[in-house]
């Protein structure tokens, strides 16, 4: 199965469906990412703070998959902001991943208390120029923090941000659309904390002979989001990858859009 790609505002492409490793135990990461690569995923989303970049790197090395067939994202953690410090942090991430470059490097969170996200962001294009990352972007920059980033004139290729049927980033979306910044939807399945089978999603899923999770992933794809659901379970990894043989109608997409109610599923990861 070839996963569709989206073209970013820097002209590079990104596979629209990937595999995320938030909260994947570092001891288990190599096995879990190996499973994901065997299932067919070629886009892996990790972060320095997940503590599992080494496991991701080992799985990639062991897979024998050509580097240019893979898309790897990692993220700068909050205590490594600043121009010099972020460069050191990226170097450490690359070493752990066993790679000479990532495909996408993100600022993980705005750090308003230190007022240093902008200084960090202004250093990011040099990492792209040095070939340490192909594209650059931000994460968790909503309508409160994105304007300061945009004021630099350096436009992020993506904003990786919580996004699922009950929290669609309504306030931030106009800025993202205006600058052609792709939404990377984290927590795309509501982190498994919401009983979506009991909503209109359950009915739509039954109509297509698919699960609620596949239906939500399909909704993300049709809304133009990049999405990387996480599961430690190989059957669910395969299920989440099996989303290219059906299509939601316009009315079904609209019905899922209608579930928006401002539900933030993971309050523990608000900016620190
Ligand atoms: P998710 O919405 O992908 O939910 C994962 C959970 O959903 C699993 O643990 C499991 O309980 C359940 N699940 C997965 N597949 C299922 C299926 N087919 N059927 C039933 N239940 C299923 O949440 P997530 O892992 O938080 O988000 C995905 C990725 O987004 C992460 O792994 C990470 O890469 C990224 N992320 C980024 C940030 C950020 O701050 N940038 C924050 C959270 C997550």
TrEMBL record:
Feature type site, description Lowers pKa of active site Tyr: 75
List of catalytic residues: 50
Domain NADP-dependent oxidoreductase per the UniProt entry, residue ranges: 23-259
Family annotation (SUPFAM superfamilies): NAD(P)-linked oxidoreductase
InterPro entries with a match to the protein in the record: AKR (IPR020471), Aldo/ket_reductase_CS (IPR018170), NAD(P)_OxRdtase_dom_sf (IPR036812), NADP_OxRdtase_dom (IPR023210)
Oxidoreductase listed as a keyword: yes
Binding-site residues, substrate: 108
GO molecular function annotations of the record: oxidoreductase activity, acting on the CH-OH group of donors, NAD or NADP as acceptor
PANTHER family reported in the protein's UniProt record: 2,5-DIKETO-D-GLUCONIC ACID REDUCTASE (PTHR43827), NADP-DEPENDENT OXIDOREDUCTASE DOMAIN-CONTAINING PROTEIN (PTHR43827:SF3)
Family the UniProt entry places it in: Belongs to the aldo/keto reductase family.
This protein's name: 2,5-diketo-D-gluconic acid reductase
Organism encoding this protein: Brevibacterium aurantiacum
